Amino acid sequence: MESGNSRQGSERSASLGKLGGSGGETGADRRRSGGGHRRELSAQTLRERCLEDRTGGRELSFEKTRFTGPVRLAGVLIDRLLRFTDCEFSDPVDLTGARASAGIHLERCRIRSLMADRLSVQGDLVLEDVHGDGLVSLCGMRLTGHLRCTGSELLQPAGKAFNGRGMAVGGSALFDGGFRSAGEFILASARIDGSVDMTGASISNEGGAALMADGIRVGTGLLLSAGSSAAFSAEGTVRLAEARIAGKLKCSGGHFCALPMQDKAIDAQLIEADEVCLDDGFMATGEVCLDGSTVKGRVSCERGKFCNPRGTALRANGLDCRDLRLGRGFAAAGKVELIGGRISRELNCSKGKFFNQKSVALIADGLICDGKIYFNDEFVACGEIWLHNARIRTELNCTSGAVSVLRAGGITCDGTVYLNDKFWAGEVELMDATVGRELNCKDGKFGRFDAQRLTVDGKFDWRPSQVPETVDVSFASVGLLLDDLNKSWPKAEKNDDPKTKLIGFTFRDLEEGGTGARGKEDPTGHRISWLNYASYAPDAYRQLTRIYRQKGLDREARKIAIAGQRDRRDRGVMPLASRLWSGFLDVTVRYGYGMYRPLLIVLFAGFAGTVFFYLAQVNGIMEAVSGSQGAPVDANKCTSAYPCFFPLTYAFEILLPVINLRQVNFWLPSGATGWGRVLLVWVWIAIASGWVITVAVAAGIGHLFSERD
Questions:
Q1: Class of residue 629 by CB neighbours under 10 A (exposed 0-12, middle 13-18, buried 19+)
Q2: Closest residue by Cα to residue 415 from 447, 392, 388, 445
Q3: pTM value?
Q4: Is the CA virtual torsion 598, 604, 610, 616 positive or negative?
Q5: What is the DSSP letter of 615?
Q6: What is the dihedral of CA 59, 65, 70, 72, to 10 degrees?
Q7: Closest CA to 314 of 347, 265, 271
Q8: What is the pLDDT of residues 483-537, one digit of tens each?
Q9: Of 341, 386, 379, nearest to 361 (Cα)?
């Protein structure tokens, strides 16, 4: 049937401007409802009608017509709206290089193939509810209006089903409303000024990529998402490498599945987009690749499922975006890669689930985040998380998260790192990390904690909920150390390797905590025990001594200093002579911190000697070393020619060798009697002890003022 109803054609053309899918019955349903008898018309007659003058008005319309023979319209000018409704073409349609001044519409039609390379259309090209079992080729097509393929089926499983490579569309390209394609679907290097809407579409290609859209340019969004009645699905790789999308790349609710011989479900390397949505029921079997992509806004993967257990589930190395959301229902089976990424505001993995047991679940080495990173709020990583040399400006928050292994060697965080409040990790590695404000591990649970050369400018709250297996803070430096001596530091058996390693560990201040009733009475005892069961760390003793002294706790400071010297003697590398000397200083003057000890010895021995020598004087046991002109001298009588004997002076002079009170050189106990010989031995012992005490006191004083202490 032919018609020249221009008003009807205008109304139909206006309806094509509506974007999005049309819910309800599918294209196949609508085609079945349009059955009935079709009249036959030759392809040559169709060509003649298209080329004749516009005697019928602005529209040339055919309805319920079967065209026999190949339709040859290559290079012709079609100067009217050409409409086919419920028609069938027995042979290919050739519109190569044709020009249409008012649009071409095929609705509820069956075609063999459509060759329309370099077709130029002023208006819309509508292939709505079209069933094709050959190639639809629109390479290099120029279209000022919309391309609408809503509800169509293009079935060419063994080859290309749709080829729109390099086409330019001034409006939108719509493949929605139950659109289905079997065979390769190509939009590579196409330019669509509006949107590409494949909401609810189904595409597949058993021999390769399902969608080939490398280098596509889209003006207002690329929609590969679920519709009201069906989800978008792709069997075969969806390729979007180097795509430029002004607006969203929206795959929300879409299902993407790589074929057995393919690695990637989505290949979107080096794309540019305003926003990327892989969320709200999104499912991918195979790798999703966003390497080197630039996204002005957020990349949302919340409530998305990424499955590639034997490889990488999500690869976004070098991704540059504002926000990256991998939480709130996100689940990945396989590795997630964010190496060298740049996130200007937030990486949010709260409640995210990462599964790659016995390997790396998330690797973000070299990541730069100018805001915050969240691995908190029931976050789970069954596998390792790598953050080596990552740079975080504000915060790394792992509160209440669970990680098999967290490796963050060389990480720099200008703000706070939270590994607290029921955080669990089988192993945490923070070697060479730098934290600007605080490292908070309160009530966290750790297996191994390795923080060699860690730097924390502010507070290190090291009060885990239970004792870790091992703690290594060798050569770490923190500001304020807040720990729990009952839970923070693991102990080892006497002959085992230390499970706490403190060599080179420095801290500027210290807060006591969690030591129990006994610790409140004797905190230094707990500190000394802590240092004794840890690896030998002489610097820790000196720091504790300094801190206690600054707080006015001189007694505690002395205890720590003495314990440090004893530990040095027991575990330090010292020759035997030095060990013996150290033991001597410990027993005598407590390394200079117990100078009262020799004084007590001198006083006790002096007064005891006074009694002994007084009794010797009374009983005539003391005798002059030399008489005056041979006359005997009595110790009980003073003479002007010989010094008088004073028991008190004599007793202390023999104990103080540096003092000469004119007693020892002139009086000695007589060796003629038994008691005299005993007192003579006492004198020798006292003189020797005096020298020992003098040497100990001098050494103790020197020890106090040496740089070592």
A1: exposed
A2: 392
A3: 0.81
A4: negative
A5: H
A6: -10
A7: 265
A8: 988 889 998 876 578 899 999 999 999 886 654 434 445 677 888 888 888 888 8
A9: 386
